[in-house]
Every structure is written in C-alpha cells, then in structure tokens.
Amino acid sequence: RPHLTPSCPPPVPSTMVRRKSQKQNNHNPLTYQEARSTLGHYGTQKSRVGADSQLPFGHCALSLNPITRDAVVSPSGTLYQKESIVEYLVRENEKLKEWRQSYERQQVEDEEKEKEEEGKKKMREIESFSAKDGGVLTSADASAHVSKHASGRLGSLKGMGYDVSGREEKRAGLKRTSYWLSDWTPDAGEERVKTPPKRPSSPFSGREIRLKDLKAVTLCAEEESGPGAGAGSAPAFVCALSRKRMTTQPCVAITRTGTVMLKASYEEFARGDMVDPVTGGKFKEKDVVDLRKAATGYAASGKVEAEVYRPTMS
Known about the structure:
- The radius of gyration is 37 Å and the shape is elongated.
- It is an alpha+beta fold.
- It has five helices and ten strands; from the N terminus they run αβββαααβββββαββ.
- The strands form four sheets. Strands 3-2-4 form a three-stranded antiparallel sheet. Strands 8-7-9 form a three-stranded antiparallel sheet. Strands 1-10 form a two-stranded antiparallel ribbon.
C-alpha cells in the first residue's frame, strides 16, 4: 500500500471521476432521448409529412376532393370548387354579422359608461365648489392642508430610520411583492370585442376575399385510358397546351380566358405576345396568377416537414 502524505489527496475511484468541463452546471440535465420520451411537449416539434397529408394538384383546398366542375381560383393562387368556397363565404358572413352586432352593443355600453362618469365628475365638482363657498373644507382639501405642514416632520423621521409609511403604502408594497395572494390576484379585466373586419378572410392567405375576386378556370382532366389510370385512382389533370400531367410543377392560370397551363409552356408560348394559345384571347400581365404548388412525400417536391415551436428547458 503506498504511503500517503498529508499534502497528497486520496485517490479518486474511477466511477467518481468528473468530466473535464469548465461549466459543469451549465448543461441540460436530460439527454435527447429522455427529453423526447418523458417531456415530449418541450422544445420545437418537427415531423415529416407524408404524401397522404399533401394536397394533389386539382383538388379543392376546402373539401380536399378532386374538382370535377366549377373550378375557381383565388387571387393567392388557391384552387377551390365553387360550391365549397361559396358555402364558406356564406358561413363566414353570418359570423361577421353576429360579430358586428356584439361590437355595436359594446360601443353603446361604452358610451353610456362614459356619460355616467362625466355626470359623476360634474357632481363632485359642484359639491366641492358648494363646500368651499360655504367655508367648509372637504376631506381632500383637509388632507392636502395637513400633508403640507406634516411633510417636513415625516421627512426628518424617515431620515432617522423610522418607518413612516402609511397603511395604503404598505398595502401597495405587499400587493407588489405578494401577488400570489387571492386578494391581490391580477385581474385580466373584462373581455373586449375586437373590431370586426369588413369582409371574411381567405382560409389560406388570410387576406380579405370577396366572391367577385374568385375567377373561373377550366381544368383539363386526363383521359381514363392514359398511363397510370386505374379504377380507384384519383383523376389527374393535364396542361391545356402541352397535355403533360400537372403534379408538382409550377403552374399558372390566365383568369381572363380561364386556361390553366404549366408555367414553362406559358413562358415559351404565351408570354411573348400576351395571347392565349389555347383560346386565342388576349390578356394582360395582371390576369396571370401563379397557382399554389402541389407537393408529394418527397423532399424535392416542396416543404415536407411540419414544425411547431414550443419552449425549451435550456
């Protein structure tokens, strides 16, 4: 057994050796797997979105079904079936009507409260004037008179170390430091009705949308005898000019003529002379809408990962 001098510390067992870290306490106590299994609601959550969660091209963004008739496009480039989007607008307009009624009632109540407060204020001014005219001091005037002569004495006592705070000051300090007490729990106040918008918002872009903002377009369905067609498969749609199947490629719609085509075909055959090669009608640059890009489960088709921000423990 080796001889240990008092100046040498005893050997540390191998199981108790600490990490060589300058900041041993500045780390997350849980490993990644422990945080995922036991505290899954902490930290930003990410999940890969499969093909079943993606909307194929030519499907209504509200009903999620293939558009078989009356296709319309919004200014943001989202395709809808007219029946679905009209039903949505009618329902949202009814909600807006009830919202406006609640807001108007709140405005009337606020005006009544304001008039009541003004009346009380005028009554206090009249009472104060009458008391002063009769030679009687009100409680507020008396307190101001006393505080004017006692402020010097209180200041000297406070300088000597005495506690000269009044009851209200102590209650205010206790309320500030002991906010968890039931008597001083913060009150959120009365719930206010926000100002309603003029029109319903789009279910995707969030902008105000009107029925006349929706433009009718024509979707060319692929023939059933084409490649990949089956009895239970969803209908596919093709470019009106090149007859190529439209899946995840960039597509455009010419709202004046209602033609839907691939953006590559539009750039090559229609943009130069601003004439629709399918119908022969002329159009302007403002009539061209970039359609919402479809996606599949593959990363090359677009965004395939959903992300939700949550607070972390670090």
